Amino acid sequence: MFFIHYIKVAARILFRNKLISGINLLSLSAGIAAVLLIALYIQSENQYDTFHKKGDRIFRAGFTFWEQGKVYDREIPDFSPLFGPDAKAELSGIEDFCRMAGSGERYIGYGDRSFKTEGMHYADSSFFNLFSFRLLEGHPSSALKAPNTIVLDKTTAVKLFGDIQKAVGKTVLLNGKKDFLVTGVIEDAPSNTDIRYTALLSFSTLSSDPDAFMSWRGGYRYTTYLLLNKPENAAALEKELPAFMWRHINKSDASDGSKTEASLQPLKDIHLKFNYNSETLSRNLTIFSSVAILILIIACVNYINFSTAQSFTRIKEIGIRRVLGADKNHLSFRWLTESAITTCMAFAIALILILSLAPVFTRLTGKELSIAGELFNGKLLLIAGIVFIVISAGAGAYLSFYLRKVTIRNTLTATAISGKKGSTGKTLIVLQFIISIALITCTFIIYEQVSFIKSHPTGIDRENVVLVPLAGNNKQDDLTSRIKQDVLNLSFVKTASAVSEIPASGITMNGFLAEGQSQSMMIHQLDADEDLLKTFGLKLNSGDWFSKALRTKEDGYVINETLAKQLGWQNAVGKIIERDGPHRVIGVVKDFNFTSLHDRIEPLIITNKPWGGYQYLAVRYTSNPSLLIKQIKSIWESNSDLPFDYWFLDAEFDSMYKSEQQFTRLLIGFSVLSIVLSLSGVFGLVSLSIQKRIKEIGVRKVLGASVADIVRLTSSGFFALIALASLIAIPLSAYLVNKWLQDFAYRMELQWWMFGLAGAVVLLVTLLTISARVIKAALTNPVEVLRNE
């Protein structure tokens, strides 16, 4: 009964001042919605691979590589294919293992249907014993056992056969060359897993592949997952790994100063701790968590300030209740109850906002979040409960403490309790502006850094280059030369080059022994034909480049400046580098970035002898790309039965910074929200201030004050608070952005105006916000407000 009475009183107070109550509720609702949306995003990132029934016993093997006493790769999952079977045979506590290896881009076909897929992986038959991916068709124990068998995901099976039940028993063709028997159909990989696939090829197929290098010194492209008997066996197993690695590889490498360390990576921790982008992702999640807390603080400050500022209208109510016998504890319970009711209403509005903004949030994050389902997840409900308690109890307790100081004198004169001339309220306003200015500054600088790395010269001319994959080609084929020659004859083509990898998202590393060095070293290797320089706009510093006229030098190497400097070669031309025999350095190419600007340029060797064939044809054109694509497609279809595909080099570079762009968009959105919430608080407080001073404004107008005078009088206090907030926010922002920029090897130069800009923007927008409200009051006819005096 009392609760219903409190609800009625709370509703009556809310409707007494619809504008202020509306701002208060919307501000609080927006803050809650932002916190819950960020919590949804963070929760989704923390749920990767948590659905596997044996997940607590699954560990991925990680490897740290040492060379000449220095680490050059840490916690890398790719290693020898023999690590898994030998570890199971020799070490204790291992129940099973599963190896996986990417197969690169493949074209898969059945009948007249054929398309490219990038998610094919070789996998041991134990795959379904370790992981909990559902096999929709086929038998888990035999699906990947025999060589040349394949398990398709549901989407691929439907594309090829129309129905998953028609897939098993059919034979598909990969790259137009090799037949694989379909033995199963697996569910599509869920969004919350790092084990992505479109199809799984039996690992036993590799035993007959001469290029698979299935030894301890084989190609380091195999990922091994270990299933332990018990999760607690992991610590004991890791103690056995050093001796195991010494027996199999480190003993023979000791003379070269090389060493490989093995470790275990818990499956549930891989996404946020051990992937190549885990450090960046974890840092971004920390930033978003901080932003969520800051936005909630701004919303709570608004709520407290609004409630406190409105308290003067309730002084007489408090006095009457005190006279009628209500004690301070009774009144405190009333404020806490009203705060809880208001917070409940804000949560209801926040829920509507979340469901309405779900599509926008999905586009910003690039993640398919099941908002409706996740909202009732236990962890999210716990977060929501904590937020509810913090807001309702915190704000209610503050207001209760504030109003408990009301005296009989206050009730008779209808004056509010200011307490040190409103210092607490001003402190909260300064806190709001500090958060807003810091967020705006950090967001602006992050946006500028992302723009900087996208436009920063990389040493490669990225414009007007189209890339055509040459899947299925090998060194015995003449497909590349036929297509390249036909493409060069097109009127819009300037030049073209065949390459083993695209120099944008990274290049493979191999071991080389350089002249004057006693130990081999890992160096990036790019295979390219004689037209690479012209196609990518590279510059040769010294020596020669590959050409058909220099057949005597086709076994030579071209190195980049970084490698020459690292080896201490003042004149590199003529030096010898060994890999499968001696190779003479014929030239030095000017440094260019072949990975993202997070990393500095590393040593590179360019060869004219592709292993396994060129994989891409890069075509530099002059104009009319749409017509050019049609012409290249026609050439492709006349030379190959495989589907035609293409993309542009500048888009390839841009895709490297996709995560940074998504992060920036999210941060911009939440920064805008923070400043809107702060300004709504200012607007509400100004409105309440004008409401209390409306007669004073009328008197001042009668005495000759102008509208500008009244605006200056009302707003000057806020400007001083913004100036103070800026002085605190600027060094805080400088510290935060410098920490963030440390992740980039190449970063823009910070300027003083970047930090002052946010304060100026907040000052200007605050002036406009205040002026809009004050001018309306100042233009009111004084007679209207003074006639009752």
UniProtKB/TrEMBL annotation:
Source taxon at top rank: Bacteria
Pfam families noted in UniProt: FtsX, MacB_PCD
Ranges of residues in domain MacB-like periplasmic core: 21-242, 430-614
Primary site of residence: membrane
Annotated GO CC locations: plasma membrane
Molecular function terms from GO: transmembrane transporter activity
Transmembrane segments: 21-42, 285-306, 340-361, 381-403, 428-447, 666-690, 710-730, 750-770
Sorted UniProt keywords: Cell membrane, Membrane, Transmembrane, Transmembrane helix
Cross-referenced InterPro entries: ABC3_permease_C (IPR003838), MacB_PCD (IPR025857), Macrolide_Exporter_MacB (IPR050250)
Protein name: FtsX-like permease family protein
Membrane topology type: Multi-pass membrane protein
Organism: Arcticibacter tournemirensis
Domain ABC3 transporter permease C-terminal positions: 290-407, 669-778
Cellular compartments annotated: Cell membrane
